[in-house]
Amino acid sequence: MNYKDLKIIFMGTPDFAVASLNTLVNAGCNIVAVVTAPDKPAGRGLQLNESAVKKFAKANNLLVLQPEKLRNTEFIETLKKLKADIQVVVAFRMLPEVVWNMPPMGTINVHGSLLPQYRGAAPINWAIINGEKETGVTTFKLQHAIDTGNILLQTTIPISENETAGEVHDIMKEVGAELLLKTLQKLAEGKIKEQKQGDLIDNSLIKHAPKIFTETCKINFSKTTEQVHNLIRGLSPFPGAFTYYQNKILKIFISRKEIIHHTNSIGSIISDGKTFLKFTCLDGYIHVLELQLEGKKRMKIEDFLRGNKIIK
Length: 312
Description:
About 30% of the residues lie in helices and about 25% in strands. It is α/β, with parallel strands linked by helices. The strands form 3 sheets. The protein has a 7-stranded mixed beta sheet. Strands 10, 11, 12, 13, 14 and 15 form a 6-stranded antiparallel beta sheet that branches. Helix 1 (about 15-25) links the parallel strand 1 (about 5-10) and strand 2 (about 30-35). The mean pLDDT is about 95.
């Protein structure tokens, strides 16, 4: 079978998913419907805001479905009538079995890690926070437990020592889109041998990627410069690692580390008031390059120092 003959339902919401949908459309795939999140009120006027996937789908004349609840009878009946061969999920919510088990070829997911490592909601963030030198993208078949289905294809992505989660995200969405298309092509040709995740690694060695909470984002300067630097770039640009300065939240987005012996107290600020500002860590300093003080916009350190007298 040719992949262009597959009737595909695509499910996704944010910009990350648009790259995959765009690649499938450009490749001539038969997208019979796009499922995305309902419009949400946003901004001062609380006007309804469409998801990035919906905007793309409308621009390309694709059928858009926006169920409030995925178990909704009307939605389920609509899916059945579309008679899709396969469903594709990219950055969407958890599906009930009645949905993911419906198509004859099942439902495949694009996940931002080398499964079975970093199962969960924030795989890019946690890979960087943990100091990984590489991550990747996995396509796999959905099953009951989240992110545990049989692996179809994988590809690796290197992570450099100063790369942020945002930068890896932008690379990954393009790499993931190409891997998804390749997966569909090989599935249509019957050339993929599924791998059970349990055969690849012992469960005790698996690192997880849970949702990021506020307490995760608070910087602990008593840790090593490596650990603090990895936290900062792993949470940049969103939600942002933070500390406090003059009783205000200070988010740090871009940093560099300096490993050096010192006698300064942990967490103290050192600055010339013009060109640099650094925080003292266990084994050196974190140089702040881009930051945002509560109530202000994000800015480079030179601009921040120009308008703020540093109180050490």
